[in-house]
Amino acid sequence: MKQKIFLIIITGVIFYIIQPAYAELYKYIDENGVVSYTDDYSRVSKSEKKSIEVIEEIESTKEENAPAEGDKTLQKEDTQKENPATELAVLRKQLDQSKKELSEEYNALDVERKRLLQQRKTAKTNAEKLSYQQNIKNLNNNIKQYTERSKTYQKLVVEYNNKINKE
Fold first, then answer.
1. Is residue 152 domain-resident?
2. Which of 4, 42, 78, 113 is the most exposed place for a label (fewest CB within 10 A)?
3. Residues contacting residue 70 through CB under 8 Å, at least 6 positions apart
């Protein structure tokens, strides 16, 4: 019984820790009249905040540069030949798609966690308890895989932000 409670607590902690992160991109005009971008709102001075704009999506100038639908990998080789603005637009679009997929996966894991909490309450026989334990193991494995994908996504976001800050 203690093991089951421990697994439920660990599962809850993991869900709390691995909530998807969302990054916003800000566009503003600095004191010299130069258009600048940042992902850190605190870097923008008070006077520059008057002109700040939240960037929802950077649109590509060429539709053929967009990744194929369902393509989950970043196509660096293709985008390196493009101009920097187009490359950033393609990367942003791919990051948005990855963020959406991670969010959907997180929601599915949360639904499964809630289902298992209910299963724990109703498990009476040894077979039901064993089934519950196996389901918890499967959920924990899925959470581990999700966490790895989330870390990879976060690294790609940092790379993207670094490219924006270079321009």
1. yes
2. 42
3. none
